[in-house]
Amino acid sequence: xxxxxxxxxxxxxxxxxxxxxxxxSSSIFNTWLWYKQDPGEGPxxxxxxxxxxxxxxxxxLTAQFGITRKDSFLNISASIPSDVGIYFCAGRPGxxxxxxxxxxxxxxxx
Amino acid sequence: DGGITxxxxxxxxxxxxxxxxxxxxxxxxxxxxxxxxxxxxxxRLIYYSQIVNDFQKGDIAEGYSxxxxxxxSFPLTVTSAQKNPTAFxxxxxxxxxxxxxxxxxxxxxxxxxx
Lengths: 110, 114
Known about the structure:
The complex is a heterodimer of chains A (110) and B (114).
Chain A: E1 5-7, E2 10-14, E3 19-24, E4 31-37, E5 44-49, E6 55-58, E7 61-65, E8 71-76, E9 85-92, E10 99-100, E11 104-109
Parallel strand pairs in A: 2-11
Antiparallel strand pairs in A: 1-3, 3-8, 4-5, 4-9, 6-7, 7-8, 9-10, 9-11
Chain B: E1 4-7, E2 10-13, E3 19-25, E4 31-37, E5 43-51, E6 54-57, E7 64-66, E8 76-78, E9 87-94, E10 104-105, E11 109-113
């Protein structure tokens, strides 16, 4: 099955730094979702995007729906230790099914 | 509280045995999904159901079966035909096909075949 290209695969950052990650696809999507997953737990929805160019914030998190509808970006400002985890993007090309990225593993150094 | 429950959290199975994973939601969602996650990997779709008494194969349905007899429940059976069943299994649900159709996930079941 198709998967999104998500980058970077992993990153180490210092506490207080800003983080950026993105997802790209060869297909056009009508919805983008961003999730965070802690070890041994289910993914938790962070941000949902529905329109090309849309920019949405959730606290220190900001995500954007790319103009081409083939990409999306997630930024985390002023990272803290609890930001550690795996971040997934998911895109919806049709009605029911989502396609998931392979994840960005974030590690924050205090 | 509304949400998705999966049970059990950890499951051990002997090779050659079938095992059923439970997924229940009280969000009144029409659509439900099963995903498999392997270490360091993304989520792969096993089966999904848009409505009661209807379901479709996902990308990796071989060796799995599902039923959708009630709106709230979508159990997944891992059969002995599944060659490599050890994995983390995630159930999700969504309202349906509308524009605002976010998927919400349960806590997952970790299956280990001994």
